[in-house]
Specification:
Elements: H1 2-37, E1 42-52, E2 57-68, E3 71-76, E4 79-83, E5 88-92, E6 97-101, E7 124-134, E8 137-146, E9 153-161, E10 167-174, E11 179-189, H2 202-206, E12 212-214
Parallel strand pairs: 6-12
Antiparallel strand pairs: 1-2, 1-11, 2-3, 3-4, 4-5, 5-6, 7-8, 8-9, 9-10, 10-11
Amino acid sequence: MKKLALFITIVALSFQSFAQKSQEAKALLDNVAKKVESYKNIYIEFNHKLDNKEANVHQETLGNVTLKGDLYHLNYMGTEQLYDGKKTYLIIHEDEEVIIQKPSKNNEETITPSKMFSFYKTGFSYAMGELKTIKGVKIQYVKLTPTDKKSEISNVMVGIDAKTNHIYNIIETGKNNTTTTLEIRSFKTNQPVSQKLFIFDLSKYRDQKNYSISEPK
């Protein structure tokens, strides 16, 4: 009976410790999100990596994005993507194509620029990860695990600069052993940004006969 009581006590303490660490991890992410929300706008230059050792795949691409609330203007792999609060506009210059879409609610797991600092709030459990020193900077990792067992994501590691409370990188590992890393190279706030940056000028592309335009019905 004493052994059973001891076992129950150990399990209870372990669960309490796990719950506290989970709350600590979420609180850290909440602090990051709260700080981000205090900025008028954010300009980010990033390095996007895609790795799958089994398939012998390694890709690296630089990009940049300007964020203002939910609005964003992204430059990545020779394309522009912007969101004006109602629709998403994908401009593929190489193919001379414009694709206009309404935001989809079907793929909640996709980390869009608008959700870069808030995607963690739903669909994940939290745990404190390692504290690492990278290039002389202390980075505290938080591990996110999807609560949906059918998710294609195994886990997401969010690296947070312990000094600035800014995100350093986001590492997503899929169940297909593909790792996607978003590493922030430059992070600037409250820059002089024109509202026109988030407005799509349809006439500009309609006047260019070579561009094909796909619009939602």
